[in-house]
Specification:
This is Protein Churchill. Belongs to the Churchill family. Pfam families: Churchill. By secondary structure, this protein is mainly β. The protein has one helix at 106-111, and strands at 39-49, 52-61, 67-78, 82-89, 93-100. The chain has a single domain (3-111), classed as Transcription activator, Churchill (Immunoglobulin-like, Sandwich). It has a five-stranded antiparallel β-sheet, with no helix packed on it. β4 and β5 (93-100) form a beta hairpin. The radius of gyration is 17 Å and the shape is elongated. The relative contact order is 0.24.
């Protein structure tokens, strides 16, 4: 991972959790070759263990192959009630979200009162 390639380390992305793609707004330039273009995704793996889906990959410079960041995305269901999403990446940032598996989210209903 390269701190010199990003504008901000692990930006707070609130509820944004991406399982593929790159947050190019945070890409400064490749610290190795000064490329300002796109980054590509390599070494993508998908694993599932004990009901958790884990996707990992690397963001690399399209020109020279310099590793910019390691991306980690996970998804699991908590207590058969909530779908949990988490993301952590130097380039794309940190984010987490939860969604009820029920048609009406009980947590959302509590916030209304």
């Amino acid at each position: 991972m390269c701190l010199d390639c990003v504008k901000e380390e692990y930006p707070d992305r609130e509820t944004v959790c991406i399982e593929t793609g790159s947050y190019l707004m945070n890409f400064a330039k490749c610290a190795h070759c000064n490329n300002l273009g796109d980054v590509k995704i390599v070494n993508r793996t998908e694993e599932e263990e004990d009901g958790e889906e884990l996707i990992t990959y690397q963001h690399v410079c399209q020109e020279c192959g310099h590793i910019i960041a390691n991306h980690r995305y996970s998804f699991y269901v908590e207590d058969d009630e909530y779908q949990m999403y988490e993301m952590e990446c130097l380039l794309c940032g940190r984010g987490e979200d939860s969604r009820s598996v029920m048609p009406t989210d009980p947590k959302h209903m509590q916030q209304l009162f």
